Amino acid sequence: MSSGTSAPGPRLRPSLDGIPTYKPGKPAGADAYKLSSNENPNNPLPGVLEAAVAAAGSFNRYPDMGVSELTAVLAERFGVPTEHIALGTGSVGVAQSLVLATAGPGEEVIFAWRSFEAYPIITQIAGATPVPVPLKANGDHDLDAMLAAVTPNTRLIFVCNPNNPTGNVVHRAELERFLDAVPGDVLVVVDEAYIEFIRDPEVPNGIDLYRDRPNVCVLRTFSKAYGLAGLRVGFAIAHEPVAGALRKTAVPFGVSQLAQDAAVASLRSEEALLVRVEALVQERNRVVAGLRAQGWDIPDSQANFVWLGLGERSADFAAACAAAGVIVRPFPEGVRVSIGEAEGNTIFLSVAEAFRKEID
Ligand code: PMP
């Protein structure tokens, strides 16, 4: 039977037209350094790779849907009850479950902007309304403005600490003041994807903040410091019923057995992984110092990337980097450059120096 040329296609939700498709950082060619996705440049530790390979032998089976071993190891590592932990397909998967669990049509999700580009997308997928609140001129979250944006329709607020893509952090005193002022029926998600790279002692650990606050949820990932970006595993720590709601809204079996076992092995090899994180922090400090010596005015990044607020020159700068064999991430407001292998970072610094001279 022919469908005929005039048959209508399937009826999709009209609101999808206004939702952008998530754009990943550009892949790099074989001989280029990829500094566009805030990945960990180190290959997996042998023990972590072995755990994943061993799990691969049974991928004809579904994974453990309760993620029981990893949940138990995380609960012990962070000193929280197992019922307070919910895992998902990357922390972006958990973030999407959080929005689905809290907000729908006519309800609002507040976040700083520019921040992690998935926030407005997952909000719109849920049919809810994104409420972006501009960062301050220096790249800090404007928590007073975010508080002023709260309405009776607000259901969720993301605080990205450190902020992707600027690297700025929110300090303990201001975050506590903010959390105490937000209505108790609004969920505040503190997205700590880059927490292991923080060296500023004034930045709080969200886990200390959630303990006596039922409306605070901490979001973490194995993708950055732990180097498991390709395996897709992230988690939330929150009180019931938030953690329970996440278990309902997550895709069933969304964390593969490879991911679960590699994450357990990573936590068991944490010391070795954190030595690598410290080396990346040292590299970040070298890059920040190098850029400032060249005359760049950049935020004090506490993450595994740096931010050049280049505005309309961003695309030109990214093209200059690409020509030199380094792939970076341009946004309308600026360029984000991940900290990678030392050689790639050094090439980026030399492009930045030449560009600085050109625009001075
Ligand atoms: N939160 C922030 C702030 C991020 O930058 C990212 C990744 N770019 C994520 C969450 C999602 O990471 P993943 O899904 O790999 O855990």
From TrEMBL:
Q: Which Gene3D superfamilies match?
A: Aspartate Aminotransferase, domain 1 (3.90.1150.10), Type I PLP-dependent aspartate aminotransferase-like (Major domain) (3.40.640.10)
Checking SUPFAM superfamilies in the record gives:
PLP-dependent transferases
Q: Name one GO biological process term.
A: L-histidine biosynthetic process
Positions of region (Disordered): 1-41
The UniProt entry, under Pfam families, shows: Aminotran_1_2 (PF00155)
Q: Keyword annotations for this protein?
A: Aminotransferase, Pyridoxal phosphate, Transferase
Keyword hit for Transferase: yes
- Record keyword Transferase present: yes
Q: Which cofactor does it need?
A: pyridoxal 5'-phosphate
Q: What's its EC?
A: 2.6.1.57
Residues of the Aminotransferase class I/classII large domain: 33-346
Modification type N6-(pyridoxal phosphate)lysine: residues: K224
InterPro entries according to UniProt: Aminotrans_II_pyridoxalP_BS, Aminotransferase_I/II_large, ArAT, HisP_aminotrans, HistidinolP_aminotransfase, PyrdxlP-dep_Trfase, PyrdxlP-dep_Trfase_major, PyrdxlP-dep_Trfase_small
Q: Which GO terms describe its molecular function?
A: aromatic-amino-acid transaminase activity; histidinol-phosphate transaminase activity; pyridoxal phosphate binding
Q: How does it assemble?
A: Homodimer.
Q: What does this protein do?
A: Aminotransferase that catalyzes the conversion of aromatic amino acids and 2-oxoglutarate into corresponding aromatic oxo acids and L-glutamate.
* Name of the molecule in the record: Aromatic amino acid aminotransferase
Native species: Kitasatospora aureofaciens (Streptomyces aureofaciens)
What gene name is given for the protein in this entry? pat
